[in-house]
Specification:
With 297 residues, this protein is of the alpha+beta class. It has a domain of 170 residues. 37% of the residues lie in helices and 18% in strands. The relative contact order is 0.10.
């Protein structure tokens, strides 16, 4: 090894480390900027939602995404028009909705649109069947305040300035008295310290299902009927179900065999009827008179 080779090698390794750390720093700065811009956008959307309270709408902000411990829902609106999942996007550049496809600077944002659909489906799983169909997924664009439309998958796109008008224009589908109940239910469910578990068929996709391997309390079985204050009724005595007898309806094979036997039996009867000849009573015939002639002498 020549003089200075060891120091040169250490200098090269140090330079590579500086380059790697500089890239990580730039990536961290971009992420911090994105989070900062996103947080500012969410704050603007939350301010807009405060204007909807006189119209009977109640909001939740930055709550858990059911089944996703490390993800959150930006905004949830509950009001006369249903339950809305509003995902705030503070995108820069050119954002267009072309033929049902959302694009930013020419790039497809279908992944973000699909994410809103997944959020709405996860939240709907915790509601009563009559309320699940009232859940909608929306995207609010902060940097494009006047853009509005609907994607091909049914996600509503509204700008920051068109959001309030679009929400209040929704037809009433919920009783105003039920809105605070659903809001309080979702607040307790999604506003806790941990994300609620969402039991789906994915739990059993890699292994066969076995009876008793899951707890019904872990699934989305909590009903709003249990949440409302109602008088407790005494449980009715269970009666053992009556045993069901076998169906008396013959099967296709049995019916076919019966039909064949019927045809064969009818053929035998007809053949016997044509071949049958009654025996006539015998009439006694007189015995011939034998006359013996004696020759004369």
């Amino acid at each position: 090894m020549a003089a200075g080779d060891g120091a040169a090698e250490q200098s090269r390794l140090a330079a590579e480390r500086v380059t790697r750390l500089r890239r990580e720093l730039e990536r961290a700065e971009r992420n911090a900027h994105s989070w900062s811009v996103g947080a500012a956008g969410e704050a603007l959307v939350a301010e807009k939602m405060k204007e909807l309270e006189p119209y009977g709408w109640l909001a939740l902000h930055d709550v858990h995404w059911p089944g996703r411990p490390k993800a959150n829902l930006d905004h949830v609106l509950v009001g006369p028009g249903g339950v809305l999942i509003v995902d705030a996007k503070n995108w820069s550049g050119e954002v267009r909705l072309w033929e049902g496809n959302l694009r930013q600077n020419g790039y497809s944002r279908e992944q973000e649109v699909s994410g809103v659909l997944h959020q709405a489906a996860a939240l709907a799983a915790f509601l009563e069947p009559d309320h699940r169909r009232l859940v909608q997924g929306w995207i609010c664009l902060v940097g494009q305040p006047q853009l509005r439309g609907t994607t091909s998958s049914g996600v509503r796109i509204e700008g920051l300035n068109t959001l309030g008008q679009a929400v209040t224009a929704l037809p009433a589908v919920l009783d105003p008295a039920v809105v605070p109940t659903i809001h309080a239910y979702l607040q307790e469910l999604l506003g806790g310290t941990t994300s609620p578990r969402l039991l789906t068929t994915a739990e059993f996709s890699s292994r066969p299902f076995e009876r008793g391997q899951f707890n019904p309390a872990d699934s989305a079985a909590t009903s709003l009927r249990q949440w409302r204050a109602r008088p407790v009724r005494a449980p009715k005595a269970r009666t053992s179900p009556k045993p069901r007898g076998r169906s008396k309806r013959p099967s296709c094979l049995g019916a076919g065999l019966q039909f064949v036997f019927l045809i064969v039996g009818a053929a035998i009867l007809i053949n016997f009827a044509f071949s049958y000849r009654p025996t006539l009573p015998s009439v006694p015939r007189p015995a011939p008179t034998v006359v013996q002639t004696v020759p004369t002498r």
